[in-house]
From TrEMBL:
PANTHER family: MULTI-COPPER OXIDASE. This is Copper oxidase. Pfam families: Cu-oxidase_2, Cu-oxidase_3. It comes from the Bacteria. InterPro entries: Cu-oxidase-like_N, Cu-oxidase_C, Cu-oxidase_fam, Cupredoxin. Gene3D superfamilies: Cupredoxins - blue copper proteins (2.60.40.420). Residues 39-141, 184-281 form the Plastocyanin-like domain. One of its GO terms (molecular function) is oxidoreductase activity.
């Protein structure tokens, strides 16, 4: 099964053959670092929202309840769904969710297994940059050859109230209209608050990456080479797969990589843009950075 470190998997119930999920859009205080919170918008109490995992052919119903002080919607990024379910109310015949109301999105999973996203598509410049998004993964239970399957949402935020180069406990607001990003997250946390990945020597790991932000992230793994196997939820033919140490995940993209954990050690996995490896431009390692412990 897919794991999204530091982010929960969204549970579902089965009713008459339909997998039913519940998302709650609401204000969220997300803990970036111990004692340091940002005030944003998310789902089910977290930024990013919980990871949704389904399978090909599933009929799904996702009830989205709006507890925000403003209207919202949800777009199923990369999924082939009916026009009325696509979640862009400004131009499509799809409902806008007013505060205090809910909408049921129902569709069949027709895409092949792959990595996708969900996010707000109403007042996108504000709501996405306040944190409204999550991972949507179509899982293949019959796939063989993968020992561990991890998924990450990559985001950046302009958190206000902290002088540049300073950190301190407290709760701070997000300025969604600023491009002065100072916190860069993997599944809603900054290093050293990101949970390390654990692997046994000889296991084959897959890492799924999704970029909901405004900047590209060249994700670099130390110690072993990665094979890039999928882009935007679509498998790359084996003859076109490249072996790499760095994979660029552009805004709106998802990328899958896999590798054999043959080399023991505690290996960094991080964005290679220097400013993205810091917390509010402080000098110790931080930001979009985690480790993979191979033993």
């Amino acid at each position: 099964m897919v794991e999204s470190p530091d982010v929960s998997l969204l549970p579902c119930t089965l009713h008459n053959g339909v997998k039913c999920f519940e998302l709650i859009a609401q204000p969220v205080q997300q803990e970036l670092l111990p004692g340091l919170f940002m005030q944003g918008y998310g789902y089910n109490g977290s930024i990013p929202g919980p990871t949704i995992v389904v399978e090909p052919g599933d009929q799904v119903r996702i009830r989205v309840t709006n507890l925000l002080p403003e209207a919202t919607c949800v777009h199923w990024h990369g999924l082939d769904v009916p026009n009325t379910m696509d979640g862009v109310p400004d131009i499509e015949p799809t409902p806008l969710i007013r505060p205090g109301y809910y909408v049921d999105y129902e569709f069949r999973i027709v895409n092949q297994p792959g990595t996708h996203m969900y996010h707000s598509h109403h007042e996108t410049i504000r709501q996405e940059m306040m944190g409204m998004g999550g991972l949507f993964i179509i899982w293949d239970r019959y796939e063989r050859g993968i020992s561990r399957d991890f998924a990450y949402m990559l985001q950046e935020f302009a958190v206000t109230g902290l002088p540049k180069g300073k950190l301190g406990p407290g709760t701070y607001a997000i300025d969604p209209l600023s491009d002065g990003f100072n916190f860069f997250t993997m599944n809603g946390r900054c290093f050293p608050n990101t949970s390390p990945l654990q692997a046994r020597r000889g296991e084959v790991l897959r890492i799924r990456m999704a970029n909901l932000g405004m900047q590209g992230h060249p994700m670099h793994l130390h110690g072993v080479q990665m094979l890039e196997t999928a882009c935007d939820g679509n498998e790359i033919p084996p003859w076109n797969q490249l072996r790499r140490s760095t994979v660029l995940v552009s805004p709106g993209e998802t990328r899958d990589v896999r590798f054999l954990a043959w080399n023991p050690g505690n290996w960094p996995f991080h964005c290679h843009i220097p400013h993205h490896n810091a917390n509010n431009f402080t000098l110790p390692t931080g930001g979009m950075f985690t480790t993979i412990q191979v033993g």
